[in-house]
């Protein structure tokens, strides 16, 4: 006979975190656990998931948090945060607040793993070729993957793009104006990233099928709402699996790959820093179309698609 179902206490996650922290001895341990667990609560709030009960938190929430933090912190810090979640949910399960530990199945990052994951040119091509562009959502998916890689965007920057973030004639380049995407990054800093022909092609294909009357967000969910970081991470993992990429792929993996491929193409490091938003870019450069041909041509170091569906060797 099947076991009798256990009746769970339906306690709010925030209240349970406070109860758990109260069981810990005062000192660095409680302080670090508190910081990491409250960061998880803040993440859920930012994703529109505040108010969850303990038993409603699933592995997918922990996975999205892990992906987000993996883009921001070292592997040792990420490992500590995941360990805090494991400890909390283990305690919660012992208290009858959840049936099982949703954080237990997720692998912890290796200690002292400081090398970022970089995709090869063929892996990038397989990933970008994975969406079925014959369908509107496939065209959207190709556009958002292409933007994230070819412009080196953070996932928050990608999701905040508006239609008017695209400037079709921006950087003077080879006696014409090269397209760019204008991005507001960390600290409100604004930068413009020149777009390759591949990115422009993918963006225009999406715009040709993008539903009208859905606000000014460039990338939309099926519902018509703006794309969210969690939705993009899920979509990226889906296409990485479809493309047969065995490496862990996050939005920041594409950003790291963008920078690495530019460096391999011998693009000046100060230009790469500008593309990534690691240094200030003045509004003069953005709105006065500064004639910096070397800046505008830098993205030509990225791999090119000879024709639609081709493979890079």
Helix and strand arrangement:
Elements (H helix, E strand, L loop, with lengths): L12 H10 L5 H19 L12 H12 L4 H20 L26 H9 L6 H15 L4 H5 L6 E8 L2 E9 L5 E5 L2 H11 L21 H14 L8 H14 L4 H8 L6 H5 L5 H5 L16
Antiparallel strand pairs: 1-2, 2-3
Features:
three-stranded antiparallel beta sheet; mainly alpha; 313 residues; single chain; 7% strand; 2 domains; elongated; disordered N terminus; hpI Integrase, Chain A
Short recap of the structure:
The chain is mainly alpha-helical and 313 residues long. It has 13 helices and three strands; from the N terminus they run αααααααβββαααααα.
Description:
The chain is built from 13 helices and three strands; from the N terminus they run H-H-H-H-H-H-H-E-E-E-H-H-H-H-H-H. The protein folds into two domains: about 15-95; about 120-300, hpI Integrase, Chain A. Helix 1 packs antiparallel against helix 2, helix 5 packs antiparallel against helix 6 and helix 6 packs across helix 10. A three-stranded antiparallel beta sheet has the order 1-2-3. The radius of gyration is 22 Å and the shape is elongated. It is about 45% helix and about 5% strand. It has helices spanning about 15-20, 30-45, 60-70, 75-95, 120-130, 135-150, 155-160, 195-205, 230-240, 250-265, 270-275, 285, 295; strands at about 165-175, 175-185, 190-195. Mean pLDDT is about 85; it is low at about 1-5 and about 280-290. It is mostly helical.
């Amino acid at each position: 006979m099947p076991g009798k179902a256990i009746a769970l206490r339906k306690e709010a996650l925030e209240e349970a975190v406070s109860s758990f922290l109260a069981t810990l001895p005062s000192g660095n341990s409680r302080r670090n656990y508190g910081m990491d667990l409250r960061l998880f609560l803040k993440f859920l709030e930012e994703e529109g998931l505040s108010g969850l009960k303990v038993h409603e938190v699933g592995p997918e929430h922990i996975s999205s948090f892990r992906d987000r933090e993996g883009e921001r912190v070292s592997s040792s810090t990420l490992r500590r945060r995941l360990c805090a979640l494991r400890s909390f949910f283990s305690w919660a399960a012992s208290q009858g607040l959840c049936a099982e530990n949703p954080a237990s199945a997720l692998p912890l990052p290796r200690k002292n793993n400081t090398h970022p994951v970089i995709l090869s040119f063929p892996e990038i091509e397989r990933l970008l070729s994975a969406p079925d562009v014959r369908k509107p959502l496939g065209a959207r998916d190709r556009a958002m993957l292409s933007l994230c890689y070819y412009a080196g965007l953070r996932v928050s920057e990608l999701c905040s793009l508006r239609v008017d973030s695209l400037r079709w004639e921006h950087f003077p380049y080879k006696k014409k104006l090269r397209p760019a995407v204008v991005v507001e990054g960390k600290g409100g800093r604004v930068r413009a990233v020149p777009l390759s022909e591949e990115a422009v092609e993918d963006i225009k294909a999406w715009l040709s099928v993008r539903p009208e009357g859905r606000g000014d967000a460039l990338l939309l969910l099926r519902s018509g709402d703006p794309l969210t970081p969690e939705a993009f991470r899920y979509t990226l993992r889906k296409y990485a699996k479809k493309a047969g990429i065995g490496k862990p792929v996050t939005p920041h993996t594409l950003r790291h790959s963008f920078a690495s491929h530019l460096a391999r193409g011998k693009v000046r490091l100060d230009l790469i820093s500008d593309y990534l938003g690691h240094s200030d870019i003045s509004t003069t450069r953005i709105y006065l179309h500064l004639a910096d041909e070397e800046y505008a041509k830098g993205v030509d170091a990225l791999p090119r698609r000879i024709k639609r569906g081709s493979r890079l060797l």
